[in-house]
Amino acid sequence: MTLRSSVSPTLCILLALCFAAPALSNAADDLPATFGSPPKGRFVVSKSPYFLHPERAMRQRVAFDKKNRVTNHFCVVGYEWPDGNLQVWVNWKEEKTNILWDGSEYRDMREAGLTTARRNLKLGRDTVETVDDINGSTYLVTHARWHSIADDCAAHGEKYVIKPFSIRHR
Predict the structure, then answer these.
(1) Do residues 100 and 87 make contact, with C-beta atoms less than 8 angstroms apart?
(2) CA 95 remoteness from chain centre
(3) Which of 48, 87, 92, 98 has the highest CB neighbour count under 10 A?
(4) Which helix (H) or strand (E) covers residue 147, if one does?
C-alpha cells in the first residue's frame, strides 16, 4: 500500500520559504549597529582578491611590532555595503587593537597593509565611553563600537594564530 501526500509541491515550497525567511533575516539583523549606515552583510575576507592570504599581512605586522616571539591571535571580518564598498577589520587579541585593513590587488602592498593601516584602534587609548566624549576627534570611537566589531569578528570572522617565529635579516 502506498501513501499519497495531500500536500502540493507548491505548498511545500511556500512552507520551506516561510521557515527559512527568519534565518535569512536574522543573519542581517546581527550585523553591528555602530556604523553610520549599516552594511548589507559580511563577506569571506580570505576569498577576496584584495585580501588574499591574510596570515602573511599578520606576520608582517607582528614582526614590525616586534611581537614575533609570542603566539598572537587574530580575527578578520569583512563587511560589504549596498554600494559595493568593502571594509575589513582585523582584531588583534593580544594588543587589544582593531585594525582597518585596506587591502590591495598587489601582493606586496596587501601584505604591508596591516603595518601601514590608517586606523589602529587600541582599546583604552583610542576609545571613549560616550559619543559626546569623542569631542570632534576624527580618530576616537566609543568602547561600544570597538567591542561591537571585536565581538562580531569573534562570532563570524576568520580566526588565525601566528606562532612565534624568528626574523631573518637580509
Answers:
(1) yes
(2) 16
(3) 98
(4) helix 143-156
Collapsed DSSP state (helix, strand, coil) of residue 39: coil
Q: Which long-range contacts (CB under 8 A, 24 or more apart) does 111-116 make?
A: 111/53, 111/56, 111/57, 111/60, 112/57, 112/60, 113/57, 114/57, 114/58, 114/60, 114/61, 114/90, 115/57, 115/60, 115/61, 115/64
The pLDDT value given to residue 17? 34
pTM: 0.80
Measured CA to CA in angstroms, residue 81 lies from 3, 8, 28, 34, 144 at distances of 50, 39, 12, 14, 21
For residue 98, what are the β-bridge partners?
A: 91, 121
CA distance 59 to 130: 34
Phi then psi for 95, rounded to 5 degrees? -95, 0
- pLDDT of 1 > 80? The answer is no
| In the chain, domain spans | 9-162
